[in-house]
């Protein structure tokens, strides 16, 4: 049993909340045992994607995926929350964002336990998937992988195993920010590989990322998983960049000056 999910892990989490009070991932306000931040509620509502969370294929490159979904637009406090998780040494923020993904995308109930939120498994969801796989970290410098931290709550909500080591980076690449659509596709082509094809073969996989921009990264991950024998891949993220109009394949996409590949 992993320490994080054991009785010892729960005690350590409670001690952490005492020493380092729980904060809102979106605005950094101290929340304690309050389940949701009242200061961010109104802005989060404006950033919700409607009428559906699914990404339109004509606006994103999600070739070979069964589909993709994200509950928020990548702007405002949602963008700040992702950047906090990625660049401010805040793994707790990634955990909180994963809870938000599980709640919105899968309808999971969120309960406060040990001063922190935990999601409940939603009956029946496991029928559609066999495992959850996070997009691999772009660098080891951070010390933790944001999509993996987010994927923990997603896996718990769906009721299937989290497989954080099945998909790895075969090579590094440039930062995606500032690259054109064509350059992004080239940048991630062949960048991922599966470590154990036998554990992928025939599986219906739920792929988790923090943000989907053009879809190039989740598509590259999907290509690696399908090549290893996966039956299907559906991608989810907390947020997506919604471009106002279709871009030229050679036009630079500047969604975030701090985002890395």
Automatic annotation (TrEMBL):
Molecular functions per Gene Ontology: glycosyltransferase activity
Any matching Pfam family: Pribosyltran
Domain of life assignment: Bacteria
Domain Phosphoribosyltransferase: 150-239
InterPro entries for the chain: ComF/GntX_DNA_util-trans, PRTase-like, PRTase_dom
Transmembrane segments: none
Keyword terms of this UniProt record: Glycosyltransferase, Transferase
Family: Belongs to the ComF/GntX family.
This protein's name: Amidophosphoribosyltransferase
Organism: Faecalibacterium prausnitzii
